[in-house]
Amino acid sequence: MPCLFALLGAIAPRLALFFLWIFTPIVNLAFRPWPGPAWIWALPGLIFFPLTTLLYSLMAATGDMTIWSWLIVFLAMIMDLGTYGNTYNQRDTLRG
């Protein structure tokens, strides 16, 4: 089952984060130290930075955030921003 979830996270991080949020307490545990309800922080992450939010939730819910955990979250953020940059660069090549 964890391998299936990892594959889902690689293919569709929004869907994986949604399932993780609905069926497990991991997302709520990850955002518990933040001010306000967890959904206030997780919902924009689900919409704008799905891979970053998914990996932050998995890293923060397990315990301490080490430098390696933050590095993984930072790389996920770079990948999310790269998706937006690539979409912006390819805007003129759309057929229609």
Query: Which whole number gives the mean pLDDT?
Result: 85
Q: Helicity, in percent?
A: over 70%
Q: How many β-strands, per DSSP?
A: 0
Shape type = globular
Put simply, the count of helices is 6
User: Which range does the strand content fall in?
Assistant: under 5%
| Head-to-tail CA distance between termini | 41 Å
What class do helices, strands and sheet pairing give? mainly alpha
How would you classify the quaternary structure?
single chain
Major sheet summary line: none
N-to-C order of helices and strands: HHHHHH
Estimated radius of gyration: 14 Å
Q: Low-confidence spans: pLDDT under 50, at least 5 residues? A: none
What is the total domain count?
Answer: 1
What does this structure look like?
By secondary structure, this protein is mainly alpha-helical. It has one domain. It is built from six helices and no strands. It has helices spanning 2-11, 13-23, 26-30, 38-48, 50-61, 67-89. Helix 1 packs across helix 2 (13-23) and helix 4 (38-48) packs across helix 5. The longest helix is centred in the last third of the chain and has 23 residues, at 67-89. The protein is globular, with a radius of gyration of 14 Å. The protein starts with a helix and ends in a 7-residue tail after the last helix. 26% of the residues are buried.
